[in-house]
Specification:
The complex is a heterodimer of chains A (about 60) and B (about 800). Chain A is built from two helices and no strands. By secondary structure, chain B is of the alpha+beta class. Chain B contains 30 helices and 29 strands. Chain B has a seven-stranded mixed beta sheet with strand order 17-29-28-27-18-25-26. In chain B, strands 9-8-10-16-11-14 form a six-stranded antiparallel beta sheet, with no helix packed on it. A six-stranded antiparallel beta sheet of chain B has the order 19-24-23-22-21-20, covered by helices on one side. Classes of the chains: A mainly alpha (about 60), B alpha+beta (about 800). Chains A and B meet through helix 1 and helix 2 of A and strand 1, helix 5, strand 5, helix 8 and helix 9 of B.
Chain lengths: ~60, ~800
């Protein structure tokens, strides 16, 4: 079981990386609004200017 | 040249959307309008546009709202509420009317509509729009632009710092919990391996790792407990955090000492679980409280009193709280006086009902003192401010109400007290246990039992059950259209014995039908006069009459131009009187008729022009709900209407004759309420305001007038007010039951814990799991409420 002395620290380091990623995403505010992005992704990026007549026809 | 108004909604076009429909080029203000127009025209439903022409009222209302944003450009306002960094300014609006992805789409397109706007982001769950713009943009222009898109922006006037702070606090809380969870999870892995019998050298290795992983929990995640415990020692006030901090210190000292000398008393797993679970339950509590903050926001809108400030002869729209001493304010007839001050121009009369309780209007002239919160009845006044809103009577009253929001109900105070004594008791028992076992057995047993005792008896659940239950009840009510301005209502209502109902709008729909119109002169002239007199009144009868007249005129394709009066005055409960340019006096006065109908006369210079009779409709389920309420309450009918009308409604709804009051003035209504201290008053009109305010629980029903809305403790947003009242009473009832249930549960739980810990049945680890479990039980019990509450909300 001596391999545990090596694998456990490695597992811990890996887990620490994920913890770091989580903390940085919290700091960037990714969890502040959980509703809107789900809608936002469905919307067109197109500008509304210069787009008037029949622009919706396929 | 493009037409200026959208073909669908008649709003001004900001960006034109064009479409050829049936050979004609139509222009629209937005994609939504274009789609609606297309659907209507394709399906031959274009009559919609003809039908709605008659609805002139709603369009003028939208325009009235427009000018209210000028104060946003004030330098002082900017300094206080705008966040700025390197030429980019930031501001947030609460947007009324956000409901779908289309709203998101159009609001986030703001930068394309105004090049000075850099970005716009909408948060749909909170309906807040944060915008960034450069210095050349005017905030008021942006607000007007949003209005034109069909939304109404409420500037979020929270101080920038406090919003930022709150956000950062939440982030810190999440990180604290994340780190605690990470460390706890790993410590648990090691602990389980140890319990299952790891090899001795592995066991030491695991213990050392646990010790290292516990350091972040002790020095980072647990800091809130230590800080609050320190604070409570300094202020000599006991708090729940004191025993937690004590348990943490005792536990870690023991564990690290055992680790050093190679003993087996290592409790890193226990302490880590304890910290994580307490942090988590507190975070959930906070989250559930914050999600119900919305009705608090609504309240703060209601408390904003509009004002018109005069600057170099120009009137500027602003709010009362931005008026400084020696500013001049213009107040039109029918408006609320925003600040305390002295009249410098104009004569008028004021209605001081809300402030002084005096019903009859008071004549005021130049040099007289007026008070904020009073209504200017008849003519435009210019007032020089003598104090700021904060120092005025109304300001103090508003502050009192705002304080009520953070204030505690007596149930909450009681549980605070119990918690405090509980902490004392807990520490005392712990010390006694320690001393007893130290002398009887040994130091080790004494230390362990005291530690277990402290952990298991933490009165967390006791501390947070009342605020949590109340918050949940409030947000349930808000979802049902019942806005509670003061939490104490939920408690007070359970003590109430009497319910007083105003008739109109509460038991009856307030939708008056004209039954008879005794015309004594020209009918057309009468109708026009009636409309003009009632034009600005918010009384339900006035609304019904306006609708009636407009419909008549539209049916005959005539255009109604209201008559302009020099002075117009509405006295709650007494009618309306007006004077025109020629000095003719016109009056609308109720008169006591023998029939069971509401009746009034229209007169010119004391000569009656017409007698009009109206009847109101009773809510269909009123009778059934009243019967239900009668099993617990005495129900009274309290109306300003004449005897026969009140008697008719009274008999229909089974009110006992001695419990129906009729022909009562607002003053008399208030006196009747005051003689029944444990009463609920439900009303809507301005003539109920004082009575609503003096009742233990004052309820304003939907479509209430501004005055009674401000005076009330509860506001029903939904049309069927009796149904809402029933819900309110049930929720209040159940809330008290849940609080009692939870408090007694956690007390029993803790007492059992004390016993088990002293006799040494449970280990510290078990205690650490059981203790937060009790918090979660209480949390769940509050969230699931009771069957009766679930069925009724």
């Amino acid at each position: 079981m001596d391999i545990l002395f090596l694998t456990i620290p490695i597992a811990l380091v890996l887990a620490l990386i994920f913890l770091g990623v989580f903390i940085s995403s919290v700091l960037k505010g990714q969890f502040e609004d959980l509703d809107t992005p789900a809608h936002r992704i469905l919307l067109e990026e197109k500008s509304i200017k210069g787009k008037t007549n029949e622009s919706e026809q396929p | 040249m493009p037409k200026e108004l959208c073909d669908h909604c008649q709003e001004k076009i900001v960006v034109s959307f064009e479409e050829k429909i049936a050979g004609e080029v139509k222009r629209f203000c937005c994609n939504g309008c274009r789609t609606v127009y297309k659907i209507l025209s394709e399906n031959d439903l274009k009559d919609y546009y003809k039908i709605r022409e008659g609805r002139s009222e709603s369009i003028s209302q939208a325009n009235q709202k427009e000018a209210r944003f000028k104060y946003l450009d004030d330098e002082e306002f900017k300094k206080k509420f705008l966040r700025s960094s390197e030429k980019v300014l930031q501001f947030s609006f609460y947007i009324e009317g956000v409901h779908c992805a289309a709203c998101l789409w159009v609001l986030e397109k703001l930068p394309e509509l105004n090049p000075n706007i850099i970005s716009a982001r909408l948060n749909m769950s909170t309906s807040t729009l944060s915008i960034e713009f450069n210095e050349s943009a005017n905030l008021s222009e942006i607000a007007v632009l949003i209005t034109q898109l069909g939304y109404y922006p409420h500037p979020l006037l929270a101080e920038i710092d406090s919003v930022q702070l709150k956000k950062q606090e939440t982030k810190r809380d999440v990180i604290r919990i994340a780190i605690a969870f990470f460390c706890m999870g790993n410590i648990m892995l090691f602990a389980v391996s140890n319990y299952l019998g790891a090899e001795p050298n592995l066991k030491i290795f695991f213990d050392i790792f646990s010790g290292i992983l516990f350091l972040p929990i002790l020095f980072y995640s647990s800091t809130p407990f230590f800080l609050s415990a320190l604070g409570s020692i300094r202020s000599k006030q006991l708090s729940i955090d004191l025993p937690i901090a004590l348990a943490l210190i005792m536990g870690s000292v023991l564990s690290y000492y055992s680790l050093l000398i190679g003993q087996h008393h290592i409790y890193f797993d226990t302490l880590a679980t304890l910290v994580f679970l307490i942090l988590l339950s507190r975070f959930l509590l906070k989250a559930s409280q914050q999600s119900s903050l919305t009705h608090e926001n609504i309240y703060s809108f209601a408390s904003q009193i509009p004002a018109r400030k005069l600057e170099e002869g120009n009137a500027k729209e602003t709010y009362a709280r931005f008026i400084k001493i020696n500013d001049y304010v213009e107040i039109h007839a029918g408006e609320t006086i925003p600040i305390d001050g002295v009249i410098t121009q104009g004569t008028s009369s004021t209605n001081n009902a809300l402030i002084t309780g005096e019903i009859n209007p008071i004549e005021v002239k130049s040099g007289d003192q007026v008070f904020s919160g009073c209504i200017n009845n008849s003519a435009t006044l210019v007032v020089k401010a003598t104090s700021t809103l904060e120092k005025s009577e109304l300001g103090k009253a508003l502050k009192q109400i705002e304080k009520g929001w953070q204030g505690k109900t007596s149930l909450m105070r009681l549980s605070d007290k119990i918690t405090k004594y509980f902490v004392i008791l807990q520490l005392l028992i712990a010390v006694i246990t320690f001393i007893y076992f130290f002398y009887v057995v040994d130091f080790e047993t004494a230390y362990l039992r005291a530690l277990t005792l402290i952990i298991i008896t933490c009165p967390c659940a006791l501390g947070f059950t009342p605020p949590l239950t109340l918050t949940i009840a409030l947000s349930k009510l808000a979802k049902n259209g019942i806005l509670v301005k003061d939490e104490r209502v939920l408690e007070n209502i359970n003590q109430c014995q009497d319910i007083f109902f105003d008739k109109t709008g509460t038991l009856t729909k307030g939708n008056f039908q004209i039954i008879k119109w005794e015309s004594l002169s020209s009918r057309e002239e009468e109708e026009r006069l009636l409309y003009s007199l009632e034009e600005n009144s918010k009384h339900p009868i006035a609304k019904s009459l306006r609708q009636f007249v407009i419909k008549q005129w539209n049916d005959q394709n005539k255009k109604l131009i209201p008559i302009q009066f020099k002075k117009i005055e509405e006295i709650p409960g007494k009618g309306i009187s007006a004077i025109n340019e020629n000095g003719d006096i016109f009056e609308i006065k109720p008169f006591g008729s023998q029939s069971a109908q509401t009746s009034f006369s229209l007169s010119k210079n004391d000569q009656v022009l017409a007698n009009i009779y109206l009847e109101d409709e009773i809510y269909p389920d009123a009778k059934a709900i009243l019967e239900e309420l009668r099993s617990r309450f005495n129900t009274y009918l309290l109306s300003g209407d004449n005897e026969s009308v009140v008697k008719k409604v009274g008999t229909q709804l089974n009110f006992e004759p001695d419990k129906s009051f009729f022909s009562k003035t607002p003053q008399q209504k208030m006196e009747i309420i005051k003689s029944h201290p444990l009463s609920i008053m439900v009303g809507d009109g301005a003539n109920d305001a004082v009575a609503i305010n003096s009742a233990l629980v004052g309820v304003a029903v939907s479509n209430s007038m501004d005055l009674s809305l401000r005076a009330s403790h509860v506001y029903f947003n939904q049309n069927n007010s009796l149904q809402s009242l029933k819900k309110l009473i049930i929720v209040a009832n159940e809330t008290e039951r849940i609080i009692k249930r939870n408090v007694s549960f956690s007390l029993i739980y803790n007492l059992a814990g004390v016993y088990l810990a002293i006799i040494g049945v449970i280990t510290p680890l078990l205690a650490a799991i059981l203790m937060p479990l009790s918090s979660f039980t209480v949390l769940a019990s509050s969230l699931f409420t009771t069957k009766r509450m679930r069925n009724n909300t």
